[in-house]
Amino acid sequence: MTFERIADDLRQQIRDGELRPGQLLPTQSQLMQTYKASSLTVQKAIRLLRNEGWVIARQGRGTFVTRSADFEDAFEKVAGDLQQQIYSGALAPGARLPAREVLAEHYAVPLNVVTNAIALLAGNFLLRYPGDLPGDEVYVRDWDDHGFATQLIHGRLVRKIRDGSLARGARVTVDDVVETIGGDPESADQALTFLALEGRMKKAHQRNGSMAYAVVGGEFGTEVPVAVQPVDESDKASAAPQKEFPAAAGVADLAYKLERALERIEELEERVERLEGRDAK
To answer: Which domains are delineated in the chain?
Structure first.
């Protein structure tokens, strides 16, 4: 029996409810015995059903009839992993993505899940199509694309903040970012501005009058600095540098609160001006 006929029969079983959403598909050996087919023929039938979205593979558990939730989980998995590969540099700017079929096989997901994940990342300025319309060829955008450069710098800085390579209290300038990450000064400045708006960084004036950005937050955009406790109090040598952080965090915290208070005052002043303008009319 051909793999197409095996796939047709399994599709019909799913339509008829004999194989229900979330149900484990028979094993490869069981399907080989049922259809009197070789392992290669059965594998091709399962691959066809998976690419069409009828079934989905789960590593170490087997192949299951697809549920609607499976598409959501698979979509987030593929889009998230490709995005992190771009941010980490595993997929470099200008690199061509593997074919959709290769990605679908790699992630063990339906082909349309890969297509939708690519479309999302293209809409977020991380990927591009050579032509005006989506095609088979997909590339990571280049550094000369301002939107991409800003996104990439922002993503890589967030990774550094989260993994601790940019610790709280650390200061970076636009030139530092361009030198260590890449891109142009305008994109670097915009990425740093976004991080400041998210609460991960704060503007800080240097002694020489230039502008820098100090790290004050981490995982969440609304996070504010907290005192850092020594990891091992018994080890004086390793604990000594930690004593500097609470003071630095405290200053940054006060600066953060002061700026928020000033912004609030400005908002109140604007409201008063609007009210006075109404009264004058």
So the answer is: 3-66 (1.10.10.10), 69-140 (1.10.10.10), 146-223 (1.10.10.10)
User: Distance from CA of residue 29 to its chain's centroid?
Assistant: 38
Report the C-alpha gap between 273 and 110 in whole angstroms. 58
- At which residue do the structure tokens 């002694």 appear? 207
Q: How far is CA 278 from the centre of its chain?
A: 47
The tens-digit pLDDT sequence of the chain (281 residues) is 899 999 999 999 988 889 988 899 999 999 999 999 999 999 999 988 988 888 888 878 889 988 766 777 888 899 999 999 999 889 999 999 999 989 988 888 888 889 999 999 998 889 999 876 677 899 999 999 988 999 999 999 999 998 888 888 999 999 999 999 999 999 999 999 999 998 899 998 888 878 899 998 655 433 333 332 333 333 333 333 333 333 333 444 444 455 556 666 666 666 666 666 665 55
